[in-house]
What does this fold into?
Amino acid sequence: MNNISLAQFDIDTHTAIHKELNRQETGLEMIPSENFVSPAVLEALGSVLTNKYAEGYPGKRYYGGCEHVDTIEQLAIDRAKQLFGAEHVNVQPLSGAPANIAAYFAVLKPGDTVLGMDLSHGGHLTHGHPVTHMTQVFHFERYKTDANGQIDLENLRKMAHEHKPKLILVGYSAYSREIAYSKIQDIANEVGAMTMADIAHIAGLIAGGEMNNPVPIFDIVTTTTHKTLRGPRGGMIMCKKEFAKQIDRAVFPGLQGGPHENNIAAKAVAFKEALEPEFKQYAKQIKANTKILEEAFQAKKYDLCFGGTDNHLLLIDVTSKSLTGKDAEEALDKASITVNKNMIPDDTRSPFNPSGIRLGTPALTTRGMKEKEMGIIADLIDRAITHHTEEATLKEIKEDVMALTKNFPLYTDQTKNV
Ligand code: DSN
It folds into this structure.
């Protein structure tokens, strides 16, 4: 076997990885679905577990030599159960989209109706957007938020009675408000629908006790593990015991082959971290930081979608500042502030050049940034948006960003050499 280091063997890949590390360290990462994992999570992710095939589940595999991966997968399952109060957990989904697809196939038949949120109102592509394959299999009806940016429960009830969905779906990618799971479960009970929550964005806030937890209420809850939960890139499904077999079969062999056990080990490590008392503090700080941004942008007369935030993100309509979401994303990129352009509710512009930007605080909070830094960052963002055509100003802001991030180092030198 070739035992030489990556730097010695493949300088091109090594250099690109280190440039990316430098980008992450010297910029302000504000895409709300991104985060920085710990060195322990990175170590598990880069471990020899990547060498192992383990189709099946702990104790019931189709391959020999699975005793250690069984231990690891069971640890991940048990810790996830403890974290969310789940009756059953499947940690094998490769990411959020396959987790959602597996969940649909577990409980629906082709042609069944799903009631999910419209993409431009904060929903997700996999919740029934016409460009996805799932819409060729299942029938999706899509609800919206009301003029106040709230989920209109009366309208949801009306739609549920009208369309008689098999599944009512909540949990969003760009929605910044709390979700009333019990009230939605009541609506589902009225029409005999199952309930599913996709908590990919807010799983860490739920685990940290900062947002409502649908797991004890809903039938099925899917999530990613790499957003606010601060684990490796991956997915997970939690469900009531009665759906356990269907969910497991839908993931494997229904949809996936061999589970990525290195990834599952990294999930186990991340869940252990999330069970520590410090994680509660982390979740609290994410929300406190986002509130500061909300207040700062309101004071600067930005249009905040949904009227503000209860979680880790803000969706901001920037068109009143005389630019588009794409212009804003590009200007902020030049200043080393990373956000993403995003549709706003009923956006009249295209997804490639929408009216809004979406930004959040999970990654900055992991770096240790608090209220004081959020005030500074809101000013930097506003300056970049106001002067988005002035290259010299954007360069100055980039220098300010570099000075700020220097005080919040991300990884130790030891981790960087791995
Ligand atoms: N890409 C994720 C996000 O940014 O919200 C959703 O898939």
Observations:
- The mean pLDDT is 96.
